[in-house]
Amino acid sequence: MAKRDFLTLKEYTADEIRLLIDDAFLLKRLRQRGRFTLPYLSGLNVAMIFEKPSTRTRASFSVAVYELGGLPIPYSAQELQLSRGEPIKDVARVLSRYHHAIAARVFRHSNLEELARFSSVPVINMLSDLHHPLQALADYMTIKEKKGRIDGVKIAFVGDGRDNVFNSLAIAGVKLGAKIRVATPRAYAPDPEILGNDVYSKIEVYEDPADAVEDVDVVYTDVFVSMGQEREREERFKAFLPLYQVNSELLKKVGREDFIVMHCLPAHRGEEITDEVIEGEKSIVFDQAENRLHTTKAVLLYLLNPNWSKTKEL
Questions:
Q1: In the annotation, is 292 catalytic?
Q2: pTM here?
Q3: Segment of 51-55, 76-80, 284-288 carrying the highest mean pLDDT
Q4: CA–CA distance from 190 to each of 78, 210, 218, 298 (Å)?
Q5: Which residues span the membrane (predicted)?
Q6: Binding-site residues for carbamoyl phosphate, please?
């Protein structure tokens, strides 16, 4: 079987994304029934490279590999020779001789692409500056769980239109038939080169978040200053605050009662979202976080054991 990577959701069809979400629901049901361990990655091990700190990704990915019968082996950038200048292509060729897959959380997406180019085993994006596909899968699993569907669901993302989470949310959403809106300052508008013209042409861009959230099913936000953007902190705060904060006043503009509020976490409470909202009845952020585990399992099985016996587990 030819190697398949998981770097963005551009390379995956709508049917493949739906299959991953369906598998994640099955894996979640099994876990809820007490099936915490499954043998489908027995004897396999996965390298996990972290250039950036992580809570949800490290925890969910490690548990996912372990509960599927495999061995997760985490590395910080400082533990590898990358920190001393070893070329990425050399690290890729060495680690892929030892491991059955390599997952990486990186500052630059181009480094992830190089890792994949020289690795002989699947490479999985645990986050880059441009894309966060594992998060998008968990987001759409959670939307389907809460709203009963994805096709036709209206989603308003409020914040940075070039955010890695938004990019993956938009790419997957357009493929799955969701209606994607983004409210963002003009200087932070989505990049058609990153999204692709087929996605970019189908999203709606607003400068006023009150217009973007009107009559939507989902209000989504992320931090205004991501890791690696600390030098832009003051400039970004001037651009985003106070207009683009998701607070109770903005949510009044939705104009319906059955909407939900999402955030990929970690949240900077009092910046992009208020404590009142994230702790409120509309917030489903911890369900999102939980579903990272189940969608990660689905991706691992799709790449490493696509013929896992689902029927035996039903």
A1: yes
A2: 0.96
A3: 284-288
A4: 33, 18, 19, 29
A5: none
A6: 54-57, 81, 105, 132-135, 264-265, 292
- The pLDDT tens digits of the residues spanning 141-198 come to 999 999 999 999 999 999 999 999 999 999 999 999 999 999 999 999 999 999 999 9
Whether the pLDDT of residue 76 is over 70: the answer is: yes
Retrieve residue 119's tokens: 């690795």
Residue 132 a catalytic site member: yes
What is the tens place of the pLDDT at every residue in 205-219? 999 999 999 999 999
Positive or negative: CA dihedral 74, 79, 85, 87: negative
Q: How far is CA 304 from CA 2, 3, 13, 108, 180, in A?
A: 11, 9, 18, 25, 32
Phi, psi of 172 (to 5 degrees): -70, -40
Task: Single out the catalytic residue among 23, 160, 163, 222.
Answer: 222
Grade residue 199 by pLDDT with cuts at 50, 70 and 90. Answer: very high
The reply to whether 109 belongs to the active site is no
Catalytic residue among 23, 135, 163, 294: 135
* Burial (Cβ within 10 Å: 0-12, 13-18, ≥19) of residue 84: exposed
What gap in Å lies between CA 138 and CA 167, rounded to an integer? 14
Task: Given the residues 160, 217, 264, 294, select the one marked as catalytic.
Answer: 264
> Can you give the pLDDT at residue 286?
98
135 is catalytic: yes
List the structure tokens of 198: 């087929």
In the chain, the domains with their CATH numbers are: 14-132+292-313 (3.40.50.1370), 135-289 (3.40.50.1370)
222 is an active site residue: yes
Q: Which has the higher per-residue pLDDT, 231 or 250?
A: 250
Residue at 131: amino acid letter:
H
Q: Extract the tokens encoding 95.
A: 């680690």
Q: Which residue is listed with tokens 């361990």?
A: 37
105 is catalytic: yes
